[in-house]
Each structure stands twice: as C-alpha cells, then as structure tokens.
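FIELD: query
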Amino acid sequence: MSTKNQDKNTKEKNSKQEAAEDVTFENQPVKEEPETKEESEVESGQPVNKEEKPDAAAGHKEAKKKPRKSSAQKKLEALQEKYDDLNDKYMRLYSEFDNYRKRTAKERIELQKNASREVILDILPVVDDLERAIQSFEEHHLSEEAKKGIELIYNKLTTILGQKGLKEIEAREKTFDTDFHEAITNIPAPSKAMKGKIVDVVQKGYTLNGKVIRYAKVVVGQ
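FIELD: result
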C-alpha cells in the first residue's frame, strides 16, 4: 500500500509542474521577427536609407548612359565633320567669287562710260572754235549759206557728244563753286546781287557721265 501511495504522489507532483510550466510559457511576450530590413531599422530607431540599390543595377544604368560607339558611327562622324569643313570652304570661295564678279562688272561699266574721255577732251577745242566762229558771223559778214553750214556742223557735233554723256557746266551768273568752276580773276561786282557770283565765262566747262572732265574758267565778282 505504501508503494502505491508514493507512486500516486509522484504523478500528482509531475502534473502540477507541467501545468505551472504551461502557464509560464503562455505569459511570456511573443517577439515577432521583422519581415524586411527597413522594418527592423524602424523598430531599432535607425534611419532608413531608401536610396541604397544593388550595385548590379547601378552598373547597368551607367552602361546605358555611356554606350560604346561602333566603328561605323565613328566613320560617319568623321565623314560629317569633313563634309562640314568642305562646305564651309565652298561657301567662302563662292562669296569671294561673287564679290569679285560684281566688282569687275561695275568697273567694266565705268570703263565703258568713260572710255571716250580722252577723245572727247581732244574734241572740245574744236567745239570752242566753232562757237567762236558762230559769234564772229556779224563781224566778218559771212553769207547765210556759210553760217547755216557752220551751225549745222556745230549742232551735229554737240548732239553726238551729248549722247556720249557730255554735258556743259552752267556758270554765268551762278554762285562760284570750286567743284565745277576755276576762277581766272576777280573783278568788282557790277551790283550787290552779283557779289560772289560768276560775271563772265572765259572757257566752258564740261562733265562726262556726271564727272568733271574740264572745269569752267570764269571771272568772279567781288
């Protein structure tokens, strides 16, 4: 009987200890494991670095930013650079030639206009003689036929010279202008209105296509 009682007491003690251990285990707090690295850093109070990315992805992006140029692309760029250089030289040369063409055309026109300058200068004394002959008709009592013949020659000659661009410079009773007139002498002005003006013309002056080829020789009143 005593042995049975001992076994029964031992079983009761063991059952009580197991019940106590179950209660203790249930009362202990359960620690949850953080699912990610960011959650663990938040729980620990450390700052979360969201910019950290794998090195492989960064290297892949750098490779995309700096693609390697193939040999065909390098040749194309070299040809494009050579084309731009040749095109620039061509445009400069074309501009220089166009300016030269315009300049020579202008010079040729001016030369054609003034090519007869020396010949006309040699003819002007003949025109002066014809004018003096016409003025002396009354003094020498020439016949009407002679007068008409001289006047006809004079008119034809002046008409031809006018077609070549010759024009007489107006001088008599005009204000003296050094651009067109050459003063031979100065005399007292016959009136106040003639002061600084041309009183008489000794030799007529002419322009050829707007350029003076002979200045008018005049007498100026003072």
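FIELD: remark
The domain at 167-222 is CATH 2.30.22.10 (Nucleotide Exchange Factor Grpe; Chain A, domain 2).
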